[in-house]
Amino acid sequence: FTVDPGSATVRMQDDTGRIVKQWQGLSELRRLKEGNYTLLVEATGYQSVEREIRIRSNAILLINVKLVEAFFCGDLVEDINGSTYRTVQIGGQCWMADNLRVSNYRDGSKIPNVRNSNEWQSLNSGAWAHFDNDTIYEFRYGKLYNWYAVYDARGLCPAGWSVPNDTDWTELTSYLGGLSVAGGKMKSTGTQHWRSPNIGATNLSGFSGLPGRFRYSDGTFAGDGGFGFWWSSNKELSRYAYSLRLDYDSEGLYWVDSSKLDGFSVRCIHN
Question: How many CB atoms neighbour CB 108 within 10 A?
Fold first, then answer.
């Protein structure tokens, strides 16, 4: 039996709940009766793990447990490229408070940066771009992803996170009082980034929504401080998927049927 970190405490319970063995780190489990057991693995600063095992006579059982560092909403979260994001608790959900900037899927596979408009409009797989193909927008507004990148099984968000689906967005908007007023509570305040008058913007939720601009399915760019779009991960019709839109001249939040080739911002939600 091995465990990472080596300081982790491991408790072994039989099927009655009685602790039959306890140790830290590496151990050889010998002279145990046949039967079902539960391993409880704990370490300070890590998420605990519970694993069911079965011991058989004259059998060799190799067990490796790697604990994941504990996460508390409000901590920074890091993507596979090393970029960090603020997080915020909104009701019963934990959201990123920044738009995604990642260039690789969670398994390390590269997400293509497609700059050419003709190439963009013919895509049927994941891709990203900066607004106007200009890296100056990277840190403030994040990248613009097509829907294929959002839905890719390799994972766009960090481990333990996912792109919010329709149910996640609905829970958020319900907590904020409904679609007619949720947008104002999600928008960053002032007109430094949003076009004037930025109606109803209070950012009471801490979502800190910005007008990240967008890319049309034909590869052209638009926005200029008036709108922010975020993808929902649900699979819809063959050519279209849902996005959510914030407007400079409204405190509402709007569902939009969007082409899967559109380029929008992405937020992640903790699983």
Answer: 9
pTM: 0.79
197 cis-preceded (ω within 30 degrees of 0): yes
DSSP designation for 179: H
Number of Cβ within a 10 Å radius of residue 22:
12
Cα gap 83→109, rounded to integer Å? 16
Please name which of 260, 205, 204 lies closest in space to residue 232, comparing C-alpha atoms: 260
Q: Is residue 186 predicted with pLDDT exceeding 90? A: yes
Q: HSE (CB half, 13 Å, CA atoms) of 220?
A: 4
Instruction: Give which of 51, 61, 155 is closest to 108, Cα–Cα.
Output: 155
What are the Cα distances from residue 256, in Å, to 72, 92, 187, 241, 243?
32, 25, 18, 8, 5
Q: Using one digit for the tens of pLDDT, what is the confidence trace for 56-76?
A: 877 777 888 888 777 899 999
- Cβ-based neighbour number of residue 6 at 10 Å: 10
Strand, helix or coil for residue 149: helix
Residue type, 83: S
Residue with token string 């975020």: 230
